[in-house]
Structure formats: structure tokens, C-alpha cells
Amino acid sequence: MKRILLAGAGVLALTAAASAADLTMEPAPIAPVVAPAAFDWTGFYAGVHLGGAWGDFGTDVWNDAFGNAQAAIGGVQIGYNYQINQIVLGVQTDFAYTNLTSGTSIIDGYGANINMDWLGSTTVRVGYAIDTWLPYVKGGVAYGNTQGQLTAYNGAVTSDWSTNKWASGWTLGAGLEKAFTKNITGFAEYDYYDLGKAVYNYDDVGFGVDVKNTTNVVKVGLNYKF
Question: Which residues belong to any copy of the Outer membrane protein beta-barrel domain (predicted)?
């Protein structure tokens, strides 16, 4: 009986010692939770866009008869962004083809139309990064190629005079860009262009005309970030 009691006491002592040792052991470290890194907008990018354009070709001749014009537009852009905390600064150049045309019959025997086939801009962009979202505004220099055409109808004979002009002015716009992957982003944007005044001189018929152009563009596009 004495031996049984001594054995039981020994087991109790060993159990107590093991429990005391467990109490002094440090708990296993827990791996820290790492939040996913925010999207970095810094870098060069290039892409394509398409959309719609509508504009007004205004002149003080023929009572602003040219009026409004509408057309599709599509082109390319290239730029660079630099992110400082949540502020994203950038510069971008874009160039697009369109067929924005307005025409009229000015007087008996004469018709005229104005066409813009190229439209571009070089702008500064300022955005506020919200992880993969980037709302932004932009502004800068705008330029485009316009053509004025005058047509004279004389019985069965038609005579055409045309002249091309590169016009320049300014543009303002705003948009929202979204990063889908670390390299692919998409955007939607509105831009207003004022290309100032182009002077078309038709020496063969002895007169010229000054034409102003303002254009609105809504477009969507994709960029590849390098």
C-alpha cells in the first residue's frame, strides 16, 4: 500500500511539474496580417480610345450657316504619371482621326462645307488616387487639321476650291480611370476643345472667310502601363 501511495505521489508531482512548464512557455507567434499594396500609378503608358465628337463651325459670314456637326472619333494616346501619396501628376499627348463635317448652300450657285479630320492635344493631368480608381482633370494645348471647301455650280459645270488649315487652341477635360491589372487600365473621359479661328482664302473667287471651331468629345479607352 505504501508503494502505491508513493507511486501516485510521484505521478502527481510529475504532472504538476509539466503543467508549470507549460505555463512558462511563450505562445507561438501569430503571422502579421499584411494589407494588399495600393495600386501604383507611376510610370509610362500608351493606349487607344474611341468615342463621339460634336462641334460647331461658326462664322460671321452667311449668318453662321455651317452650324453643328457630329462624327465618330478614334485615336491613340501616350503619357507618363508620377504619384505622390494620393496625388497623381501626369502629362499626355493624344491624336485622333474623325470626320466632323458641316455643309450648307450659301447662295444660289454656291455651296460650302467645313471638315475636321484630325484632332489632338498635349495636356497636363492631375488626379487623386483611390487605390485602383483615379478621377482626374486635364488641360492644355489643342490642335487639329480643318478643311474649307467652296463649290460653285454653273449649269453642268462644278468648280471646287479647298484649302487645309492647321488650327490650334486649348482644351479642358475630366475623366475617371480604373486599373484592372497592374498593367491594364481603362478610362472614360469628356473633353472640350476650342481651336480658335482658321482663315480660308479663296483667291480664285476673290474672297475669304474666318471660321471658328469648338468641339466636344466623349470617349472611352484602354491603356497599357509599362
Answer: 31-226
